[in-house]
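One such shown below:

_____
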Amino acid sequence: MGAQNICEGIKYTISATNTIALPISLENLPKEIIVNGKKLLLKPSFHVSLVCINEIINKHNITILNFVDSVVQDFCDFVSKNDIKLLSYLNEFKLVTDNNDRDWHTVVVLCKVSNLDKFFDIVNSKYKLEIEYPPTHITLYVTEAKPGIFLTDAKDVKYLTKPIPNPIGRAL
């Protein structure tokens, strides 16, 4: 089952893994790339993962009732007054490797988005949490038949990624 629209519109979606995302359109990218001898395939669609709710629940041992629905409502309330949009792509590409499956790789490009830090400030205050602002990125390429790999904080970036040269040969 694919992502569903939220917040009474088509700009933001939520996935089956309860990840709130901002869909992105990218065109004219190579259908496949080779990175460190591994063939990776272009994803059929792109998004910036904004709030990975299930990952937050797992990493922070959250037991708050209806946390998913509550955070989605908080997000929709927030974006009704504060647009979250893609500001720029950074020239930072990373190869991501899953710790549990060393043959599972993705390539991401880091990006900047507006206002997401303010949303996390609200969530942290409301739920008395210390969720780190996520490393915003777009997964461009994946190992065949595998989804992206979650990068939700600096620890994920440190332990799951390594910098690589721009694999598409041009700026996004």
DSSP finds four helices and ten strands in the chain.
